[in-house]
Amino acid sequence: MKFNIRKLFKNTEGGRADTADRPGGETLQEQIEEQKTSSNQFGTFAGVFTPTLLTILGVIMYLREGWVVGNAGLLGAWFIILISYAITISTGLSLSSITTNIRIGAGGAYSIISQSLGLEVGGSVGLPLYLSQTLAVAMYIFGFRTGWLWIFPDHPAILVDLGTFTILFIIAYISAGLAFRVQYIILAIIAASLISVIWAAVSGSLIYPVTWWGSFPGSPEDGFSGTSFWFVFAVFFPAATGIMAGANMSGELKDPRRSIPIGTMSAILLSLVIYLGLAYWLAASASTEELVSNYTIMIERAAWGSLVLAGLLGATFSSALSSIVGAPRILQALGEHRVLPEGEWFAKRSRKGEPRNAMLCTGAIVFGALMLRDINVIAPLITMFFLISYGMINIVVLIEQSLKLLSFRPLLKIPRLVPFIGAAGCLFAMFIINPAFSLIAVAVILVIHWTLIRRHLQAPFGDVRSGLFVAVAEWAARKTNDLAVSKQKTWTASLLLPVENPQELRKNFNLIADIAYPKGSIKILGLAGIDRDKALSDRLSYLAKAFQKRGIFSSWTIIDVGQFEENLIAGMEALGGAFFRPSVIFLTLPGSPERDESIKSIITKASQNRIGVLLFADHPEGGLGMRKTINLWIEDKSPKWELSMDLGNLDLALLIAYKLKINWKASLHLIAQVKDYNLAPAAETFLKYLAEAARIPNAESHVVVGKMEDFVEYQPMASLSIFALPSDPDLDFVRDMVKKTGTACLFALDSGEENALA
Questions:
Q1: Where are the alpha helices (DSSP H) in 564-650?
Q2: Which fold has domain 494-612?
Q3: How far apart are CA 107 and CA 126, in angstroms?
């Protein structure tokens, strides 16, 4: 029999196909193929390289690079350019590396950060990034207006702004494809302006001696009162940003894994060459005095100044166009993940995939900013938000590299030093440019992050936060094992709950939660017997989530062994070797004596494994009542009622009584039993100092004379009575105490790890 091998295995070409169901019934392979063949998506040159290059080659290149060279000299200017690009190249490499590891969705930097550190971190960076990108449109329009009025000084400024905005908005609203076609024209204009510079150099403009290191005279605005290297760096650095212009289009690229790295890094490297070459041409084509005093020196020294002026107008227009096209994509992604209220409205796209609603919102914000007439006051804040987003990209890569997770296997691997340089450089640049606005930007992001955490966002993808916390926990575990083994200072009520019937656990749910809250944990151990019932798994999962809603870490598991005692002892011994092992096992008194021997065996085994025991005996009629009063019974310590650090078998009982007192906001009665009246004063003194040493406020003391079982019925009325539990308990005595007290009773056996006086 012959088989068509190619047809039989066509779904496995290029690797195993993922046939898991996806939204719309498509497999992952089908979605990838659809994305690559979609007609309204863009390739590397149109979608990434062109917008990134045009955003980097902006107004600073045309109007401020000569001033930088005049102040710092050629070597100083090159040094400033190289420092700036060291940060940019590191960030670009980090961006390229992470995009080869994930299926990046819409939103660029927001998508990358969210998929690694969660929606809360991504949203806290993405929302300010969106606003910065949007407000930057208004700034670019103001820059365009400056060049326009240089040609037509009689034109009203506001009409120039509104006319430019209208053209930009119409182009962007129609489609990103139209915007990219316009950018081809602008790219040609900027290329012509650079050819004009090159022609000037060839024609003999390089006639001035080069000043290698400048004297930093300052600028005309401050009367040439002098400046510093880092101030000049702060002026130039924004020119090296703009590398996210292509990444912001990530949701509309044919192959973002390939296009973003190639397009971004090509644009960065080409712009670096252009900036370095222009610095040399400016240094040799004008005197230092001309460079620092004449911002339009590049227009005057070029072979055809009109082309440079056109390049200036084209650069500002293209930067505005890239921002007004990219910003709505960030907003659409924020809406899609419900980071914003009414996110569904922002997430809507047209039939051609254009985020029209997000575009309308972006246009309204830009229009409002234009009406303010001057947003230079917040311009540094805009730069800070860009830098924070760049820094977070580097931090994401640094974290994922450091965790060494198997899921982080980018096709483009970079040394760990690269993202470290990028992150440190962004932080350095922030505080060099404007320390005050840096702190404000960080504060704004922290407030947004806190707000998003409270909203409990549900991400449609996983992230590495759990891996990060696991790594920290493993580090902490190793460090803890190197320290002393005593856990008395760090003891928490980490409960092990054996469960055969989930209904019984539901009945004691509130008591267990109050014992564990706030820093304890609960491990539910389902005892299934030989035949496991699926309903048991569902109920245990439901109960674990209920504890988590109360703010208590909870997990569950099931053990299949033939008998109750075997089940529980096997689970207890298995968990005993864990680092976060249970500190207390919570048992309930059997309804009949048939299981007494099993319970006693479990208590003995728990004591051998240094696990404390809480044995709860509910009152059949009263239950826990109003939970306003707790009685803690203290056994006779005659003949010496002396307080020491060794309380005997009293530490766990005292700690649990204190926790319930706090969580119930209840009163606590300490009741001591003595054999005769002569010992009563010593017992009363003991109780007084015990409450003081254990730091239990407002505890009331009582002393009874005689056998405990003869007087418990005369105890102060309480919701719960707590007793010490011997390692070989008499369970008939336990039942008798429930009857005589008329309350629910809790019996506690120390593990040796507790110390109520620590």
A1: 564-576, 596-608
A2: Rossmann fold (3.40.50)
A3: 8
CB 317 within 8 A of CB 144: yes
* CATH architecture of the domain formed by 38-454: Up-down Bundle (1.20)
The model's pLDDT over 28-40, given as tens digits with 9 standing for 90+, comes to: 454 455 444 444 5
Domain boundaries, the chain: 1-35, 38-454, 494-612, 629-749
Radius of gyration from C-alpha coordinates of the chain: 36
Place of tokens 């806290």: 124
**HSE-CB for 571 with a 13 A CA cutoff:** 27
**How far apart, in whole angstroms, are the C-alpha atoms of residue 333 and residue 460?**
12
Identity at 277, one-letter amino acid code: G
The pLDDT tens digits for 455-470 are 766 666 555 566 666 6
Q: Looking at domain 629-749, which of 3.40.30.10, 2.60.40.10, 3.90.870.10, 3.40.50.620 is its CATH number?
A: 3.40.50.620
pTM above threshold 0.70:
no
* DSSP code, position 725: -
Neighbours of 282 (CB within 10 A): 25
Q: Is the pLDDT of residue 245 over 50?
A: yes
Q: What average pLDDT does range 506-529 have in this prediction? A: 87
Q: What is the 3-state secondary structure (H, E, C) of 269-302?
A: HHHHHHHHHHHHHHHHHCCHHHHHHCCCHHHHHC
HSE at residue 471, side-chain half, CA atoms within 13 A, is: 12
For residues 11 and 17, the answer to whether their CB atoms sit within 8 Å is yes
Is pLDDT at 15 greater than 50 in this prediction?
A: no
CA proximity to 59, closest of 161, 136, 133, 140 = 140
> How is residue 567 written in tokens?
């089940």
CB 585, CB 509: distance < 8 Å: no
Amino acid at the residue 735? R
Strand order in the sheet with 699-705: 553-559, 521-527, 494-499, 584-588, 612-617, 744-749, 720-724, 629-634, 667-674, 699-705
C-beta neighbour count of 582 within 10 angstroms = 26
Q: Residue 537: enclosing H or E segment and its boundaries?
A: helix 534-549
Per-residue model confidence as pLDDT tens digits over 534-571? 677 888 888 899 999 888 989 888 877 656 666 666 66
